[in-house]
């Protein structure tokens, strides 16, 4: 560890951060900035346009961001933000990362307030610090008054009152406030559960929860505990802290999306928890959008939880990595930073290994539920209590479960690396934030300086022209939307024709298979999972296959099913390739439509757009293999029929004749014929073929409808967001021009002083930017050396 080099780089980062904060203070005192704060928030408070990045309120937010980076630098702290939806298993994943249970796990949102979890060597028993509890105490006083005016029956109409909520209501009524410190897992659980229930209660009683009071990272609750995976590792330099963030729209609070963005902006790196079973869901899409909003300012990692639920038709590990990296995350995350895992298995294996190492045995299952969950998974659902007495077998089972969870890879790649290089991560994060800040402020100041050199009359003309451009943009949006809708219709029609063509092709292959009882060699080679040579599956001379016993019928049906899956797999691979090209073409065509629609405006205000930082960005659905999942099992259900058929038999007749025949042991006489009903297991090949054809038709129809809806919705939302961003950029330029006009209307001495002040700020900003760029290069060089 290059301790001296890290110290010197930290000193340089602190100097640049301090200089940036001073520069922001100077910028805040400029005359047009103060005017902008008054004028903007009185004139545009009901407008959809975004506030200026350099009004006093926004400057204060930027100062808070840089102050946070300064705090992390001085404390050598790397903050790894954890973000995910409720159903993704975020709390379970954090417990698995830490190695023991520090966060409660319920089937409802559990992170209404951000929570820091700091690795503290030697702190075996977790402790929660909540020093900034005053806003919560004020809230509870307000809720106490509101509860006095609300009867219990009315409250139950808007709120589910379980045991935890009932205890919270009693606590509020009795005036018991939150403590500033909690020691032990159970007291911490109760505190965090109560905080989250406070959010639900506040919403039911229409009382504002003080989220803004906890926007600063130093105000949120902090849990200190030793991470099991880092115990005994002393080669780290700096402090590693996890930040458990609220999910988008968690607890029914839509404005948490903004809080999430603010928290992510303060992190040194981001770890996304995605649900393998819900990768295409709206909730996971919200998380991805929040992460993409951070841009390149922080490194990104992703854990794809619930990978243990993968079946043989699901995407494998490499497919999941490619899907998330290239499609869902738009190339902003490397495939090597995506880890399919089972957080529950990892957590249970960790917990068992930890208990066995400390106590040599597991707790009683009746006392701690996780033991039963561990035994069910690791030992099988038919385990006995005696199995828990075999320490060696339990250790082996825990190790195997840990291996199956696939959690070792992210622990090594993310957790160990973050711990070993916490100071480096903090430095790299600070540099990126500084570069983003200096680029934005330099563009803004250059625009302001140019405005001070332009005559008032020219500024008025520019404002009038820009207002005309804004009207033209609105008209262009209508025409662009019309062209986009036509493109979407054409794409959907082409996709329908494409799917119809493939349906015919699949049916042709199915008919050919049932005609010859074998899959064509070309398709056999395409089906990667079925590369071995295959023979004839059944006798083509018969339309039905009959068997004396059900197992034989099942084997024959399985052979037919495997052959049909070769046909479907080959079609799936080809469809995936062609639909990918179709969607890519649509995306390029729509981007070209937008470019043509806005080219006249962009030409006239290109300089203004550049200064405003505007960039074209429209997100269209990209086809991926997750939409194509032919599951032939459903098509083969209930295809074996049990038939009773008459079978001729011979038997000895009763009476003297039969007795004499048995004495003589004759095969010639003494027998009589009779008929019995015997079970036969019959497979109707036409029924199999028809049901398979219907399955393919239903699946492709659903696929067509799903993709058409996705294209329509995504394009509509993307176009709206695109033009909203474009309009905001034009509005920001107009506002800047108006403020420049106000500045020009001052006396020449004031304008000269303002110009000199701005020029000094520009010089300082350029100086900070250049030194920060050099610092970033030095940090990256040292980071590379450290990782070798």
TrEMBL record:
Residues 74-410 form the Dynamin-type G domain. Pfam families: Dynamin_N. This is Dynamin family protein. It comes from Buttiauxella gaviniae.
